[in-house]
Design brief:
The protein is mainly α. 62% of the residues lie in helices and 2% in strands. The protein has helices at 12-17, 27-37, 46-52, 58-84, 94-111, 119-135, 139-156, 167-172, 175-198, 217-228, and strands spanning 207-208, 211-212. Strands 1-2 form a two-stranded antiparallel ribbon.
């Protein structure tokens, strides 16, 4: 399994034409955002994450921080790009703006931080990543709220069919594809950050960071079903 970002690469022309309500976002940072969003993310296999968590030395931690310093801005910038170009006025919904601005702030912090080269630098980088990971905890709730806001605005007729944002246009857009793509990319981001943070903590028996050494997927599915549904699925 590779932690790939499946977003479509943006271009400068499309970036400038994207639908977004502009706010006071630094021109220099906005230029960097466009630059990073045009880059391809580096695939990371589960095996690589697993092996890197074995016997983490201070040198390994600095190397991991350096990789994330280069990689996270690319993935975060592409999430901003996805959120900015949402059609039918969805990018203008208050809850969606909240999500997008959270990602913009994270991007700003990442590119404004010097590359960690010492143990002290890495410790500071760790604190920042821990904070960034915590910030997007409620993304699902905000995105759900944004979809409800858009439906409400569309139903009231405030956006207008003449602008291509009528009920028919919204019904024809594949929201599920956007959600699948966004959440898969979000999972890859959180896994990279989560593994980095976890290898700093106390060791858990049978785990290397967040990766369980002898994981049985069927057991995890049953646990998930016990949490969210009843009864659990039968063994196949």
């Amino acid at each position: 399994m590779c932690i790939r970002d499946r977003s479509t690469q943006s271009t400068g022309e499309l970036f400038e034409r994207s639908m977004l309500p502009r706010r006071a976002f630094s021109t220099a940072i906005d230029h960097k955002l466009q630059l990073y969003a045009s880059k391809a993310p580096v695939p990371v296999s589960m095996l690589e994450m697993f092996e890197f968590a074995q016997d983490p030395s201070p040198e390994k931690l600095v190397m991991n921080a350096q990789f994330l310093h280069n990689e996270l801005p690319v993935r975060v910038a592409q999430r901003v790009w996805d959120l900015r170009r949402l059609p039918h006025g969805l990018s203008s919904m208050p809850s969606m703006i909240t999500v997008r601005e959270s990602y913009e702030r994270s991007f700003d912090r990442l590119v404004s931080t010097e590359m960690p080269t010492t143990v002290q630098d890495e410790e500071s980088f760790f604190v920042m990543i821990e904070d960034i990971k915590q910030q997007d905890t409620h993304d699902q709730e905000y995105i759900s709220s944004a979809l409800r806001e858009l439906i409400g605005v569309c139903t009231s007729g405030d956006l207008g069919v003449d602008n291509g944002v009528g009920p028919d246009g919204i019904n024809q857009w594949d929201f599920s594809n956007f959600l699948d793509k966004f959440y898969l990319s979000r999972i890859s981001l959180r896994m990279l950050m989560g593994q980095y943070l976890a290898i700093h903590g106390p060791e858990r028996q049978g785990f290397h960071g967040i990766i369980q050494e002898e994981l049985r997927p069927a057991d995890m599915i049953k646990k998930a079903c016990l949490l969210y549904t009843s009864p659990s699925p039968r063994d196949s």
